[in-house]
């Protein structure tokens, strides 16, 4: 049997195949000779050419198995952590840019703007955010009490996954901070510490207008609806004509009209508002 293997067709077939430059032929020869691979390539002459070729075949086969495993390990233990690190660094960089923009704006506003509160003050005013009034895409609104005087306020926390809450915060403080009108909600103060931001408004005990016009149990008379509509129109007209800069709200809807204790309507939520010079025509498509 050994003589046949060393001198017969298997050995001859193996040597024919490895004489070909193709890796496919080398691989075929390797598996054809099976357990007598080494004896075939070293029989009689112990030709180093065949020995070298056989070693190359082994290396090629092992490489075809090892390279995918190596790439898998490389991706798992090197590239994946690197990708996570790059993502976190990008998020941190964006956060720093937003914080810098807000702080620069607040330094400009601090001489003319409303009162600035620390975050600990906001926690105390809301009694650790105990009384929640509502929830929206911008965050949550909580009822609070300012001391001394027991002044009731509404505290809107800008939170969630919004990457634009820095811009929303600047828009709201810069617009509503300069407004004093009976039909526009009054800004009491604000808070900005790193990414924690809050806006403090006067409290509107009757909530938003949509609770009444869309509810059969809480409907108004036509006279009252007309009075509310006129109040909203006066507030919008003041935004457009009564300020040094035109203020375009861009989000007038029943949900953003608040009612005080006497059902006087007040325009609220200036997150989308923009300032324009007086006399400039603004076209909204």
UniProtKB/TrEMBL annotation:
Q: Where on this chain does ATP bind?
A: 156
GO MF entries? ATP binding; protein serine/threonine kinase activity
- Enumerate the UniProt keywords alphabetically: ATP-binding, Glycoprotein, Kinase, Membrane, Nucleotide-binding, Serine/threonine-protein kinase, Signal, Transferase, Transmembrane, Transmembrane helix
Gene Ontology CC annotation, any one: membrane
Q: What is its main location?
A: membrane
Specify whether Aminoacyl-tRNA synthetase is a keyword of the entry. Answer: no
Q: Would the keyword Transmembrane helix be found if you checked this record's keyword annotation?
A: yes
Q: Where does the record place the Protein kinase domain?
A: 127-285
Q: Which Gene3D superfamilies has this protein been placed in?
A: Phosphorylase Kinase, domain 1, Transferase(Phosphotransferase) domain 1
The membrane topology noted for this protein in its Swiss-Prot or TrEMBL record is: Single-pass type I membrane protein
TM ranges? 55-88
- Which catalytic reaction applies to this protein? L-threonyl-[protein] + ATP = O-phospho-L-threonyl-[protein] + ADP + H(+); L-seryl-[protein] + ATP = O-phospho-L-seryl-[protein] + ADP + H(+)
The EC number(s) attached to this protein equal 2.7.11.1
Q: What is this enzyme's class at the first EC digit?
A: transferase
* Family annotation (Pfam families): PK_Tyr_Ser-Thr
- Identify its protein family: Belongs to the protein kinase superfamily.
Cite the PANTHER family for this sequence: RUST RESISTANCE KINASE LR10-RELATED
Quote the protein name from its UniProt record: non-specific serine/threonine protein kinase
Q: Which organism is it from?
A: Aegilops tauschii subsp. strangulata
């Amino acid at each position: 049997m050994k003589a046949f293997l060393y001198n017969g067709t298997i050995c001859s077939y193996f040597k024919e195949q490895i004489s070909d430059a193709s890796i496919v032929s080398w691989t075929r020869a390797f598996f054809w000779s099976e357990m007598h691979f080494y004896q075939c390539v070293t029989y009689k002459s112990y030709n180093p050419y065949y020995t070298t070729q056989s070693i190359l075949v082994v290396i090629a086969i092992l490489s075809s198995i090892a390279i995918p495993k190596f790439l898998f390990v490389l991706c798992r233990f090197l590239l994946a952590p690197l990708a996570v690190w790059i993502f976190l660094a990008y998020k941190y960089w964006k956060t720093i840019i937003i914080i810098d923009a807000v702080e620069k704006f607040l330094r400009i506003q601090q001489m003319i703007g409303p009162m600035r509160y620390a975050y600990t003050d906001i926690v105390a005013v809301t009694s650790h955010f105990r009384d929640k009034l509502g929830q929206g895409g911008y965050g949550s609104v909580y009822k609070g009490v300012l001391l001394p005087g027991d002044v009731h306020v509404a505290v809107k926390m800008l939170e969630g996954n919004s990457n634009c809450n820095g811009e929303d915060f600047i828009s709201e403080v810069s617009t509503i901070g300069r407004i004093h009108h009976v039909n526009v909600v009054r800004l009491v103060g604000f808070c900005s510490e790193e990414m924690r931001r809050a806006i403090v408004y006067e409290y509107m005990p009757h909530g938003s207008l949509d609770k009444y016009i869309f509810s059969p149990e809480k409907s108004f008379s036509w006279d009252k609806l007309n009075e509310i509509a006129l109040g909203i129109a006066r507030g919008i007209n003041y935004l457009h004509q009564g300020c040094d800069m035109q203020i375009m709200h861009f989000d007038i809807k029943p949900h953003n009209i608040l009612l005080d204790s006497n059902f006087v309507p007040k325009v609220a939520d200036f997150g989308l508002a923009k300032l324009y010079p007086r006399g400039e025509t603004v076209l909204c498509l």
